Amino acid sequence: SLIASNKKLNLVMFGIFDLLTKNLHNYVKRMAVDIARDSTESEHTTYLFPKYIDTFIHSKSTQFAELSRVSFQQKIFTSLIEKNAEKFDLEGSTKWIIRKNRVILKKIDGDISSFYSDLLKMKKTLEINRVKTFKTIRKVVYLLSGVLGSICISVNHFLKDRDDKSNQRQLIFVVALGIIGFFGYAHIFFWNDGLTICSLRTFNIKTSIANT
After folding, report:
1. Which of 11, 105, 131, 188 is the most buried (most CB within 10 A)?
2. ∠ CA 186-190-191, rounded to 5°
3. 120-138 pLDDT, tens digit each
4. Which domain holds residue 199?
5. What's the pLDDT at 17?
6. Can you give the pLDDT at residue 33?
7. 53-58: long-range contacts, CB 8 A cutoff, minimum separation 24
8. CA–CA distances in Å: residue 209 to residues 83, 133, 145
């Protein structure tokens, strides 16, 4: 609108146009780094409730939509710049810069499309991890139930005959074996594959969980 109202293209306006495209391109590059990091982290992350997966995906898609909007506005700006360049017969580097910016904007659109594709992959990965998490939790709960059951039986047997030292040794052995077995089993399933349970509210409190 500023170009149209002035009816001329000056170096300051041309510099602003070029700078805006460069800034947008640099922002998309940083976004690409963030997406790559998020994609890697999603392989080792799980949210317990589906709505938190949806919240994560929505926040990212909103950023991508805003990028698309800015890219579209910059294309309009490019068209205005080009029309003024033709109107005032500007030669030299101006047309080359316009072509260069068009190429950059086309690449930006391609990057944004790939961001959406990566986001869908992240969503699928998070959903798979959530299923794996609950399978692992069930296994650990079953093991804990077995350990507690064995300890209760041993304690009951010990209380029937407290003076029998063999019962005391048996109780100590069962309790120790149960504790060692539980933590050993939990270690295998909770730390082997390094999955992470994200806090239901803050997404910051994390506990390792395994891939089953």
Report:
1. 105
2. 115
3. 999 998 888 888 878 777 7
4. 2-209
5. 83
6. 93
7. 53/123, 53/126, 53/127, 53/130, 56/126, 56/203, 57/119, 57/122, 57/123
8. 59, 7, 19
